[in-house]
Amino acid sequence: MKRTLLIIAAATLSLAACSKKAETPAPAGETVTYFKLPLAAGGGDLDLAAYAGKPVMLMFFTETCPYCRKAGPAVEKLNKTFGPKGLNVMGICIQDDAQAALNFGKSLGITFPLAYNGRPVYKAYKAQGVPYIYLLDKTHKIYNVWEGYDESYDPEMVKAITALLAKK
Question: Which of 22, 89, 94, 129 could be bridged to 79 by S-S, CB 3.0 to 4.6 A?
Fold first, then answer.
């Protein structure tokens, strides 16, 4: 009985750490807030304006969140599949330390750009935990949002990206 209670308590704490609730997320169709954040790898910024006229998928994450660590490889797979077709994928670490984003990317084999110090952008997008994944159309309005991550989201993500890329 004590062991079951400990397991339940640990699971609850883990979920609370990764899925803190805040405001309602920005709805699909809403113009998102522009951002310019430092790249974790150094040498410049991740500037949304540089992707004008291009669809973007962005994922908010933290280095050690277990759900982010599940989402990272799935988003990387989407990057490899749809990047050559015009989708631009990027990650935004809400932690202030570039090393947290670098560790996340290196440990998961992430090849898309990773920024850090993203908490203000995270708040502007009204995300409610991590991971939070946004699909933006070519005008950078929110096309779709995935709260958290589960493998069952994969077909829906593929369908949404395919539909978005088909729009001229």
Answer: 89
Q: What is the sign, positive or negative, of the torsion defined by CA atoms of 119, 125, 131, 134? A: negative
Mean pLDDT within 85-106: 98
Classify residue 2: in a domain, yes or no: no
CATH code, domain with 71: 3.40.30.10
- State residue 7's pLDDT score: 40
Number of independent structural domains in the chain: 1
pLDDT of residue 34: 87
Which comes out higher in pLDDT, residue 10 or 101? 101
